[in-house]
Specification:
The complex is a heterodimer of chains A (186) and B (469). Chain A is mainly alpha-helical. Chain A is built from nine helices and no strands. Classes of the chains: A mainly alpha (186), B alpha+beta (469). Chains A and B meet through helix 2, helix 3, helix 4, helix 5 and helix 8 of A and helix 1 and helix 2 of B.
Chain lengths: 186, 469
């Protein structure tokens, strides 16, 4: 197994084998991130592809400062945000209030309850979902989120609050509480 | 507050371990995009810039070559045909007095002039000097026939102002029988040869023909394709595909330039648009009566999960209101996770898909003149470099053609060879009509698919006109 530095060097030389190794190394972890940001697993696959394309195209900009995984993770999140913007642009309307609550039957995973949690996150309106992910999971501040998504600081806070309430209600109504935590929603 | 923090923390902790495996074919799709990605780094832009500069340089070089070559040949032709004659050969003399090269020579007064014939007052002494030829003195005796000219006497001749004769002057002169000293050609011969030039209108380019010819052609083409299966084709895909695919009549359009290397051989190149395609049978297409999207989240931009395998590549679709079903075999691929199409209540929309691919071809063709009379017969053969420019899949129903997708895994660059016979029939002084039965074939596999290779070939009947530049 080659070291990550060797793999990066191979990718910089545009060697397909190295690119495949990099993909094998990070695809599962990054796909998990993409699934959280996407509306469904098809969008997640598109985001993962776009993300890796950007990784390979911008690898020369990685300066060995900070973790490489963190760098790839940021690229994947940016790809997800870009995908969200494209959707908004294509539909011509803000999908915040009129998105369909679409839950498709996806691939069966071993960890069903985790899969169900992902489905509930995916059922959030796009902007809520992205704000929730960026704030609750990635740890961005509302100021950073507002700058990235070009929304106001207050909108970011409101979106997060609503996303959180929706998640809680859905988890309650679908009786997933006990599976997640008996403590959280009492 | 604590509960809220716990909520985020628990979800975060739960999700941190979430690492699902992406679909197995995702890397293949990513690799395909990597191979075709147009924005991968600065090198791509350098290639674009280099290609652009090469195009500009080629266009400029071609212009310079054509223009300068034409001028050079014209000059060479004139130099060869209109140069000053070594002698006073009547033919060359007649040509040497063409106006544009008839430069008035420096006037020279002979030190010793010929004497006037004392006993003949009508004798006219003329000094002739044409086109830088060594000064020649002609003694012309008008109205006195059968006279002879003797060597000049020692007495000085009467000097007459010399006015350079014009072509019209030559025509006006009534000439009797003249003899010229030093056994030079007679003036009759010279004047007769002047008359050969014509009626005073000089057409210097009458005999000059440019080696360049413009050739514009259009042709119907019947395109076949050869599938060359490889050992990986364990399921007999080749047979299934061949049973369900029909050739289409398409067309070629070309704008080419021909250059005559010599009397027998011409070289031809330019740009052509080559369209080829095939019809896919036994794929039924359905849709909802209200044309509602059948897949995804209900949006029209969701994309389409199905694809159809053909010998020319895999068709992907862009219209989520359509559903495809293979009634013959398993050529339709449906990705996992989509709604079961059996639940749809659909109407049949059509059952024939036409695949079209368009290439810009840069041909390099040699033509050999087999028969060169009024009608020409040529053998031609060459190589073509084809770049994919259009790619569409069309569904035709009720006379309406809708583009519903495109073929994936088609190589952008392909090389083809061609050969045929050309019949050139003149339709006017400079224009020839061409009729050229031609066969062409790709020598590189058109598809990037790994299961089998595809080498399309076609028969075309090219028609066109050519004219010299």
């Amino acid at each position: 197994m080659e070291s990550i530095d060797d793999i990066i060097k191979g990718c910089l030389k545009n060697r397909r084998k190295a690119q495949k190794q990099l993909y094998d190394l990070f695809s599962a972890k990054m796909y998990g991130i993409c699934m959280r940001y996407a509306k469904n697993h098809h969008d997640a696959q598109d985001i993962l592809q776009d993300g890796f394309i950007n990784v390979f195209a911008n690898l020369q900009n990685y300066k060995n400062k900070g973790s490489f995984e963190g760098w790839i993770r940021r690229i994947m999140i940016n790809a997800a945000i870009q995908k969200y913007r494209e959707k908004i642009s294509n539909l011509g309307v803000n999908t915040l209030d009129n998105e369909l609550d679409y839950n498709e039957q996806t691939v069966e995973y071993d960890k069903l309850e985790l899969n169900e949690l992902i489905e509930i996150i995916q059922s959030l309106p796009s902007q809520y979902r992205i704000v929730f992910n960026m704030f609750a999971i990635e740890g961005y501040s509302h100021k950073e989120i507002s700058e990235t998504l070009k929304i106001s600081d207050n909108t970011s806070r409101t979106n997060y609050s609503r996303a959180r309430n929706i998640l809680r209600n859905k988890l309650k109504s679908e009786k997933k509480v006990s599976k997640l935590s008996n403590v959280v929603l009492k | 507050m604590n509960k809220k923090e716990n909520f985020e923390n628990i979800i975060k902790k739960k999700l941190e371990g979430y690492q699902p495996q992406p679909p197995a074919d995702l890397w293949d799709r990513l690799e395909y995009r990597l191979e075709n990605n147009k924005n991968l780094g600065w090198k791509q832009y350098v290639r674009y810039a280099a290609a652009f500069l090469l195009l500009i340089a080629s266009a400029w070089g071609g212009y310079e070559f054509i223009y300068k070559n034409a001028v050079h040949e014209e000059v060479a032709y004139e130099a060869e045909h209109f140069a000053k004659p070594e002698s006073l050969d009547p033919i060359t003399l007649s040509e040497s007095i063409r106006p544009e090269i008839h430069k008035k020579p420096a006037r020279q007064v002979p030190e010793k002039t010929a004497p006037i014939y004392e006993d003949d007052p009508d004798l006219l002494i003329a000094e002739e000097d044409i086109e830088g030829i060594e000064k020649e003195d002609f003694y012309i005796k008008e109205k006195q026939q059968n006279d002879t000219i003797t060597e000049p006497a020692d007495e000085p001749l009467q000097q007459i102002d010399f006015i350079e004769p014009t072509y019209a002057d030559y025509q006006k002169i009534e000439v009797g029988e003249v003899s010229i000293h030093r056994d030079e050609p007679s003036i009759d011969d010279m004047l007769a040869s002047v008359e050969l030039v014509g009626d005073g209108v000089f057409d210097d380019h009458a005999e000059y023909t440019s080696p360049w010819t413009l050739y514009v052609n259009a042709s119907p083409q019947y395109a076949f394709r050869i599938n060359s299966s490889n050992p990986k084709d364990l399921v007999g895909a080749k047979t299934i595909l061949e049973q369900n695919e029909n050739h289409l009549i398409t067309y070629n359009l070309g704008l080419n330039f021909k250059y005559s290397l010599n009397e027998r051989i011409e070289m031809e190149s330019g740009l052509s648009y080559v369209r080829m395609g095939q019809s896919i049978r036994n794929i039924r297409v359905y849709n909802d009566r209200q044309r509602r999207p059948l897949f995804g989240d209900g949006s029209l931009d969701f994309g389409h999960p199905q694809s159809v395998i053909t010998s020319m590549g895999e068709i992907s679709f862009n219209d989520p209101t359509l559903y495809f079903d293979d009634v013959h075999s398993d050529r339709v691929k449906m990705r996992r996770g989509y709604d079961d199409p059996d639940n749809f209540e659909l109407r049949e929309k059509g059952d024939r898909l036409n695949q079209h691919l368009g290439f810009i071809e840069i041909p390099v063709v040699l033509r050999y003149n087999l028969y060169d009379r009024q009608t020409k017969i040529q053998l031609k053969g060459g190589v073509g470099f084809n770049y994919l420019v259009t790619n569409s899949v069309v569904l035709k129903q009720d006379g309406i053609r809708n583009s519903i997708g495109k073929t994936a895994l088609v190589r952008n660059w392909n090389v083809s060879v061609s050969g045929g016979v050309a019949f050139l029939v003149p339709v006017s002084n400079n224009i020839n009509f061409h009729l050229e039965p031609t066969a062409n074939m790709f020598v590189t596999s058109m598809t990037q698919g790994k299961e089998y290779n595809v080498f399309p070939f076609g028969l075309s009947l090219s028609t066109g006109i050519s004219m010299p530049l």
